[in-house]
Write a structure and sequence with these properties.
This protein is mainly alpha-helical. The protein has twelve helices and no strands. It has one domain. It is globular, with a radius of gyration of 18 Å.
């Protein structure tokens, strides 16, 4: 039997989505953990995907000038080879880099909504990927700017984005870490990460809308107004989160987030081991 989501749950989870979506700590993992600890159930992958529309709307607003410029350049470049500048190329990079997660997300959608949300898996991934972030910070040269981005960079970061299908990984953490391994500056890696997420997250959210209203056992059932309010809250908080994160990563290491991931993962393992919360 599917539980009905309360207003308190939808507001809290919407706010949490906005806070965590862009930080390399996994928004889907946090929503899964928080809904289990605070409410004794799973909000569901569909609820998470729909509220991500709010945070992606924040990306669209925050990067509106960049997006309009890239889209315009892409169309100009299609019509005139002489107009094929960096923005034109970035448009293609985003398109090609989105293909892998689109294919894998469709093929494994059932596993993502069920077995992929097991909290033992989430805890393990939180800790393991903290190590990936540390390695990226340790060995990434961080010397290439956005102007030096290549198709190879885009495709590799697109493949890394596929890891975010597993709650606990973090979309921004996976793509930005890949960018650091490729030698990109932190801010450049995160900027492309945000642009790369737009088509994948938007498509996922729209695709999940029907299931969010009828979870069929894979999560709590939210009403239309609850989804709307949660998504709006995620938008407002998400916008502030983008501005803060870009300032933070321009001067600070991602290892701060890696340390937080380890603490959260270990805490989750303790809660699971002692039977305080259930894994599924």
């Amino acid at each position: 039997m599917t539980d009905t989501m309360t207003w308190a749950q939808s507001i809290v989870l919407g706010a949490l989505q906005g806070i965590t979506e862009f930080l390399p700590i996994s928004s889907s993992g946090h929503l899964r953990i928080a809904s289990e600890i605070m409410f004794g159930g799973d909000a569901g992958a569909s609820f998470t995907a729909v509220t991500q529309l709010g945070t992606e709307a924040a990306v669209l607003v925050y990067f509106a000038r960049d997006i309009v410029r890239i889209v315009a350049a892409w169309f100009r470049g299609l019509a005139d080879r002489e107009q094929r500048d960096l923005d034109y190329r970035i448009g293609w990079y985003v398109i090609f880099a989105t293909i892998p997660i689109g294919v894998l997300g469709f093929l494994f959608k059932d596993q993502i909504r069920t077995t992929g949300r097991n909290l033992w898996l989430v805890a393990t991934v939180l800790i393991v990927f903290a190590g990936v972030i540390w390695l990226a910070e340790r060995y990434g040269r961080k010397e290439r700017s956005m102007e030096q981005l290549t198709l190879r960079d885009g495709v590799i970061m697109g493949l890394a984005q596929c890891l975010a299908l597993v709650p606990g990984v973090s979309r921004s953490g996976a793509t930005a870490s890949a960018g650091l391994f490729l030698g990109l500056e932190r801010e450049a890696a995160f900027r492309f990460s945000f642009l790369l997420a737009i088509p994948a997250v938007t498509a996922s959210g729209l695709f999940s809308l029907p299931d969010a209203f009828d979870p069929s056992g894979e999560g709590m059932e939210a009403t239309g107004p609850q989804l709307l309010v949660a998504t709006a809250i995620a938008f407002v908080i998400g916008y502030a989160s983008i501005a803060w994160l870009l300032r933070f990563v321009s001067a600070h290491s991602m290892n701060w987030f890696g340390g937080y991931r380890v603490i959260l993962g270990v805490t989750l393992i303790i809660l699971l081991s002692t039977g305080v919360i259930n894994a599924t």
